Amino acid sequence: MAHAYIVDAVRTAGGRRGGRLAGVHPVDLGAAVFDAIAARNDFDPKAIDDVITGCVMQGGEQTMDLGRNAILASKLPDSIPAVTIDRQCGSSQQSMQFAAQAVMSGTQDIVLASGIESMTRVPMGSTAVLYMKAGMGNYKSARLEEAFPGVMFSQFDGAEMIVKKHGQTKEALDAYSLESHRRAAAATQAGAFDNEIVPVEIETPEGKEWHKVDEGIRFDATLEGIAGVKPISETGVLSAANASQICDGASAVLIVSEQALKDHGLTPRARIHHVSVTAGDPVIMLEEPLFATERALKRAGMKIDDIDLYEVNEAFAPVPLAWMSYLGASHDRLNVHGGAIALGHPLGASGTKLMATLLNALEKRGGKYGLQTMCEGGGQANVTIIERLS
Asked: I need a labelling partner for 128 at 20 to 30 A (CA). Which of 134, 140, 298, 342 fits?
């Protein structure tokens, strides 16, 4: 089978809800990362066969094929097609895997995988809630309700279920969250994100400036401060401080074939070693990365110790903690530059965002293999394993 290679991976710095990226249209966020990919790599962008864009809240400003609109708003040729997909939080990780599969099948040579999400301008859940409030229907059909009576498929409930099932404590969740901020702060101060972040021009009261530092990082975070945040529910342990931050952002990964490397003189940074996706219990929902990773490693003929670095999306602190415990993975190799608790989780943009961070971290640390996974709505999980080449 033919190989698929990663030539480049970029992302915007995250913006808090109502923060520095709130004034930027999601289409323009996407255009910014598309332009950066073209500017950073010496090839004719007309050769791009397709753009696959992940986005979860496809409503309002994120409708009408968001990926195609971002192409039209960018400096890329209008002749490039695009499609927008939804696999919940794994949307752009799936866009990356679809891109790799297209290249590995030999049907396409250059595919741009991407993700865009403005959680400020198109709030989480708004696409379903607005219709339900207007009496225009519910995402649960009669047959789905019959299969899962009274279940609202809540990620918050699923995370609390993981806490109980795996015997976790709020103290452990809060300590993990503090470490996420510490790692993200250290990475920022050391310039570890410089090669992956695309500056975005924004308007501020002081005038125009460039947004290029993740806004959600608490550089002065303390365990006392995190522990003092009130839990979301009276009976639970999850709080806003030990869950991912609502975030605005966009990201992109350029994936090409071996022929494209030769034709355009491109240098690969990594090879796609394995891609897979699984599904399990849709109620506990967020536990699937544990089993998806176990299956992926088996199919790839690898063990967890063969992986130098892992990126496991920090949707909620219970997820990476359960993942580490189940797989016997080392915290020293997990989310080494911090995760979504500090950096933010821009839903559909997180998949390609994590890949940009994973690839750069592998290069900085001299690692060979990296693994990325994340929990997703409906009890799904993608797993991508890459081999660093440069």
From this structure: 342
- Examine the residue annotation and report whether 247 is marked as an active-site residue of this protein: no
CB 222 within 8 A of CB 178: yes
Name which of 279, 267, 269 is nearest 195 in CA terms: 269
Paired with 184 in beta bridges are none
Write down the catalytic residue from 211, 247, 273, 375: 375
Phi, psi of 281 (to 5 degrees): -60, 120
Q: What angle do CA 104, 95, 337 make, to 5 degrees?
A: 105
Distance CA 99, CA 256 (A): 8
Residue 290 exposure: Cα atoms within 13 Å on the Cβ side? 19
> Block means of pLDDT (10 residues each) for the chain, length 390 residues?
95 98 98 98 98 97 98 98 98 98 98 98 87 77 96 95 98 98 98 98 94 98 98 95 98 98 98 98 98 98 98 98 98 98 98 98 98 98 97
DSSP 43: S
What Rg, from alpha-carbon coordinates, does the chain have?
20
Residue 310 · residue 333 · CB < 8 Å: yes
SS3 state at 383: strand
The answer for residues whose C-beta is within 8 angstroms of residue 368's C-beta and 6 or more apart is 308, 362, 387, 388
Residue 345 designated active-site: yes
**Rounded CA separation 346/117 (Å):** 5
User: Any idea what the Cα angle at residue 71 is, between residues 116 and 389, rounded to 5°?
Assistant: 70
In the block, tokens 């996706």 appear at 277
User: What's the full length of the chain, in residues?
Assistant: 390
Helix, strand and coil in the chain, % to nearest 5 = 40, 25, 35
CA distances from 295 to 107, 289, 313, 341 (A): 27, 10, 18, 26
Task: Exactly one of 89, 211, 273, 337 is catalytic; name it.
Answer: 89
Q: Give the pLDDT score at 122.
A: 97
Element (H, E) at 386: strand 380-388
